[in-house]
Design a protein that fits this description.
The chain has 168 residues and is mainly beta. It folds into two domains: 86 residues, Elongation Factor Tu (Ef-tu), domain 3 (Beta Barrel); 69 residues, Roll (SH3 type barrels), CATH 2.30.30.240. Helices cover 10% and strands 45% of the residues. It has three helices and twelve strands, in the order E-E-H-E-E-E-H-E-H-E-E-E-E-E-E. The protein has a six-stranded antiparallel barrel with strand order 1-2-5-4-3-6. A hairpin with a 4-residue loop joins strand 7 and strand 8. The chain is elongated. The relative contact order is 0.16.
């Protein structure tokens, strides 16, 4: 079993133990299909959690776990990370990958020049950004004009960097 981060627990919502789930690409239905999660706190603590409910609320997802009955209990989980077995994650679909699948992939220019490896995928309001670490750190926008090919099996991403990006 390989655990992957699926989100971060935010602040409590209301008084009955619900919490905001931040930085999660899964829908409430997909979260319900997984049900079993591992919570990891900032100080290294771990706790197994079973999802009771997940529901959309405007532009966020609210989650409630079994055994978390009030705001005080929920606040103990705040700012912890939510992890799940990667085998339980739904198939993201053709031509799509989860961020955790991209971390560690080599990044090369179309001419074969090695730029480094993906260290992180940052979500922004416009488009994701690959944080590529090599000789120097590059912030590569994930847009069709820049990211030309993602080969998960070959563990390589081919890009065409816009003029001047390496000088930033």
């Amino acid at each position: 079993m390989t655990l992957v981060k699926v989100g971060r627990i935010g602040r409590p919502h209301g008084v009955r133990g619900e919490q905001v789930l931040d930085s999660c690409d899964l829908s409430p239905l997909e979260l319900h299909a997984i049900r079993a999660f591992t919570w990891r706190g900032r100080a290294g603590a771990e706790r197994l959690l079973t999802l009771h409910t997940a529901r959309p609320a405007h532009d966020r997802t609210l989650v409630h776990f079994n055994g978390i009955a009030n705001r005080e209990q929920a606040s103990e989980l705040t700012l912890g990370e939510l992890w799940a077995d990667d085998a339980l994650l739904p198939d993201p679909g053709p031509g799509v990958a989860y961020a955790y699948q991209l971390v560690g992939l080599r990044v090369v220019e179309a001419d074969g020049r090695e730029l480094g490896t993906i260290a992180d995928v940052v979500t922004t309001g416009a488009n994701p950004i690959y944080v590529v670490r090599g000789e120097r750190e590059l912030l590569v926008p994930v847009i069709p004009d820049v990211v030309k090919r993602v080969d998960l099996a070959g563990r390589v991403v081919t890009v065409a960097l816009p003029a001047g990006l390496e000088e930033l």
